[in-house]
Amino acid sequence: xxxxxxxxxxxxxxxxxxxxxxxxxxxxxxxxxxxxxxxxxxxxxxxxxxxxxxxxxxxxxxxxxxxxxxxxxxxxxxxxxxxxxxxxxxxxxxxxxxxxxxxxxxxxxxxxxxxxxxxxxxxxxxxxxxxxxxxxxxxxxxxxxxxxxxxxxxxxxxxxxxxxxxxxxxxxxxxxxxxxxxxxxxxxxxxxxxxxxxxxxxxxxxxxxxxxxxxxxxxxxxxxxxxxxxxxxxxxxxxxxxxxxxxxxxxxxxxxxxxxxxxxxxxxxxxxxxxxxxxxxxxxxxxxxxxxxxxxxxxxxxxxxxxxxxxxxxxxxxxxxxxxxxxxxxxxxxxxxxxxxxxxxxxxxxxxxxxxxxxxxxxxxxxxxxxxxxxxxxxxxxxxxxxxxxxxxxxxxxxxxxxxxxxxxxxxxxxxxxxxxxxxxx
Length: 426
Hints:
alpha/beta, Aspartate Aminotransferase, domain 2, Aspartate Aminotransferase, domain 1, seven-stranded mixed beta sheet, four-stranded mixed beta sheet, 37% helix, aminotransferase, EC 2.6.1.62, Aminotrans_3, biotin biosynthesis
């Protein structure tokens, strides 16, 4: 096709391109990004640049156009961009698996490489269901979780998203019926811990697993909760023969101030999902890690294989970039950078507490959230942030930021001003 002008591109986009969580044809005109570098998105209409306060849905932790990740991609392209993973293996995938095992909570020894975060949750659920079938307990096929969660947009992940008020409420009555308890309080409450223990005990005979987002719930509401609840769940699952799954797709790779949120509680789950920041935002890839107990249990079953095999599983190009991203993260003082961003967001977002319509302001690691007492006017809030030179993507009653770890202090302050501006206008 010939080079398109921005108006031509937007018209074709409106007519043909279905954007996430949007109607078809689109009703809101998106911004056209021409290029990205560091923490900035350059707009194609010549209007300038925006500081990315979203890290491309929390994945671009090192920013854009990073020379180390670029070189990893170029080097792998010269060898091979893809090869099937059935019956074959290759260095990038093996190295990536070893890196993940070495950095994850102790006991997670086996790695299944998937296409996306949602697929990694599908794989985690399949692992748990097949584990119990292999042990001769096929009735253990339900999942328990708490409300306010979000685990992806494919089938099993949708079933453990909040069924009331969540984005998948439309599918209530069609999805598998799972077991839900109330949302976890911010601080530890023994009465809530008792609810968790009682729910696991009551449903133990039918539960394959408990699945939760540890410490931070993501797209279900950006809520934080006490790490102590993870220890409660670990103990309850052990006591009643139920597997424990942590969805660390949003929280993994340092976002909360620990490499994985499970570390805040010193707990190892039986299965753990990672994604988003795995490749530094360059390519789609995720992984499901499990303990030897789970892998051995499946391998002893009547069907001793995990029957799941995505075409692009273990993609060498994505794996090579993921290795480079992890090594880049671990090779620097990432914790100091995350804590620096945390301090900057605390200072900058403090002013939002006094704004009319603001219900709560909360910060943890490189996560800043302003919660309103009403649904966000998304168009007005987004335009207010753009006027401040920042890209944000509010949703529901939330205006939040998860910036790249390389965001400098001046840009963190700018992001905070933009969040406040969006809260005033939205």
